[in-house]
Automatic annotation (TrEMBL):
Entry keyword annotation includes Lipid metabolism: no
Residue stretches making up the PH domain: 136-238, 260-360
Domain of life: Eukaryota
Domain Arf-GAP: 12-133
Protein's UniProt name: Arf-GAP with dual PH domain-containing protein 1
Cited PROSITE patterns: ARFGAP (PS50115), PH_DOMAIN (PS50003)
Keyword line: Metal-binding, Zinc, Zinc-finger
Pfam families: ArfGap, PH
C-alpha cells in the first residue's frame, strides 16, 4: 500500500474516532444521526441537507468537507477534535429563546434553513446579538393570504400583538377595522407546504364556537419572514399561556405552542349510503380527524373526534361490502362506519397505525369537551 493511501486511511480512522465524541455523531443543526459532512471553519459535523445550506455561505463562514470522500489533513483533524458539536452549539446556539422551535430531521426545509442562517449568518443566538424581530410577540408586515373561495394569493397586512392576544389582517393598509382577528391563544400554526405546494407557507387553524375547524393559508416570498412570523406567534403564545412562568416545564413548551398534524394526505372515502368513492384530503390532528374537498379548503366536509375503544371506536382492515378492494380500511364510530381506501399498502399501514394509537389512548376530560 502506498504511503499516501495509508496516511489517508489513518486519518479517516482518526476522524471516525472524533465523530464518536463530543456530540459529533449527530448533525449539529438538526440532530440527524451519523452526519457525513463537516464544516472545517466551525469544527462541527453536519448531515447532507444542513451541509447544503452551509455551502451557500461565504468560505470565511463555512467550508464543507465530506467525511468519507474528501482528503483530510492533520491540521483539519486537530481542529475538528478541538472544537466539535457541543462546543460549537455552546457558542452559536447559546441564547436560543425557549419558545424558538429547533428543527429535527423530519421538519420542513424552511425551518432548518432559517435556523442555520439564524445561528451562523445572522448570529441571532450569540452573546451581544441584537434583539430579533420575533422576540416580543409583536409584529407588523405583509403575507400573501390564500382567498377563501378562489385560488388567488393576495398580499395582506398582518398585525400581531401579544398584549392584545390578537393577530389581525387588513384588506387595505389604511383600513381601520381588520378583516379578521384571530385569538392568538387559540390558534394553531403548522407548516403547509404539502397542501399549498409553496415552500414558505403556513396554515393557521382554529376551532370556531360551533366546534368546527377553519383553515387559513398564508405564504411569503422570504423564508426568513415566514419563520419570523412563526416564531413571533410562538413567542406571543408563550407569554399569553403563562409558559414563561416559574412553574412552566420547558420540555412541554414545544408541543403546546404549535402542534404538527400526526398525518395528512389524500384517501378515497365512501359515503354513508355506499355512494361512489370520493377523493378527500384527510388530516389527523391529535384526536380530531378531518376530511376536506381539497387540501386548501377553508372548512372540512366532515370532522370527528376519535374516541377510544370504550367509547365504541374501532379500526380494521378491509370492509364488509368491498372485500375485493386493496388498501381499504374501516373506522367504526358510535354513529357510523367510515370506509376509506389508501393507494398503497404502506399508506394504509401508516394511517391505521396512527389511528390505532389514538383509539388505544383513553380520552381525557379535555378531549371530551372537544
Ligand atoms: Zn442536519
Amino acid at each position: 500500500m502506498s504511503t499516501i493511501r495509508r496516511q489517508d486511511q489513518e486519518r479517516k480512522a482518526a476522524l471516525s474516532k472524533i465523530q464518536q465524541e463530543n456530540g459529533n455523531d449527530y448533525c449539529a443543526d438538526c440532530s440527524e444521526q451519523h452526519p457525513k459532512f463537516a464544516c472545517i471553519v466551525k469544527g462541527i459535523f453536519l448531515c447532507l441537507e444542513c451541509a447544503g445550506v452551509h455551502r451557500s455561505f461565504s468560505t470565511d463562514v463555512s467550508r464543507i468537507k465530506s467525511v468519507n470522500t474528501d482528503v483530510w489533513t492533520d491540521e483539519m483533524l486537530q481542529f475538528m477534535e478541538e472544537n466539535g458539536n457541543i462546543k460549537g452549539n455552546a457558542t452559536w446556539a447559546k441564547n436560543v429563546p425557549v419558545f424558538y422551535r429547533r428543527p429535527t430531521p423530519t421538519d420542513p426545509h424552511v425551518l432548518k434553513e432559517q435556523w442555520i442562517r439564524a445561528k451562523y449568518e445572522r448570529k441571532e443566538f450569540v452573546d451581544g446579538a441584537p434583539e430579533p424581530p420575533y422576540l416580543k410577540g409583536s409584529m407588523r408586515g405583509y403575507l400573501r393570504k390564500k382567498g377563501k373561495d378562489d385560488s388567488s394569493w393576495k398580499v395582506r397586512l398582518f398585525v400581531l400583538s401579544a398584549d392584545n392576544n390578537s393577530l389581525s389582517y387588513y384588506i387595505k393598509d389604511q383600513d381601520r377595522t381588520p378583516k379578521f382577528t384571530f385569538n392568538v391563544k387559540e390558534i394553531n400554526v403548522t407548516f403547509a407546504q404539502d397542501r399549498t405546494n409553496e415552500d414558505n407557507s403556513l396554515q393557521f387553524t382554529y376551532v370556531k364556537s360551533d366546534g368546527l375547524t377553519r383553515n387559513y393559508f398564508v405564504s411569503s416570498g422570504s423564508g426568513k419572514e415566514l419563520i419570523d412570523w412563526y416564531m413571533a406567534i410562538r413567542s406571543a403564545k408563550f407569554c399569553l399561556l403563562g409558559l414563561n412562568g416559574p412553574r412552566a416545564d420547558p420540555s412541554k413548551v414545544n408541543a403546546i405552542l404549535t402542534r404538527d398534524f400526526t398525518m395528512e394526505g389524500f384517501l378515497q372515502k365512501k359515503g354513508p349510503r355506499d355512494e361512489p368513492w370520493a377523493k378527500r384530503w384527510f388530516t389527523l390532528d391529535g384526536r380530531r380527524l378531518l376530511y376536506f374537498k381539497e387540501p386548501m379548503a377553508p372548512s372540512a366536509l366532515g370532522e370527528l373526534i376519535i374516541g377510544s375503544r370504550t367509547e365504541g371506536f374501532d379500526l380494521h382492515e378491509g370492509c364488509t361490502r368491498h372485500q375485493e378492494l386493496d388498501y381499504c380500511f374501516t373506522l367504526t364510530t358510535p354513529g357510523r362506519d367510515y370506509v376509506v381506501m389508501a393507494t398503497t399498502e404502506n399508506e394504509r399501514k401508516m394511517w391505521m397505525d396512527c389511528l390505532s394509537k389514538v383509539i388505544a389512548q383513553p380520552m381525557t376530560d379535555e378531549d371530551k369537551q372537544g
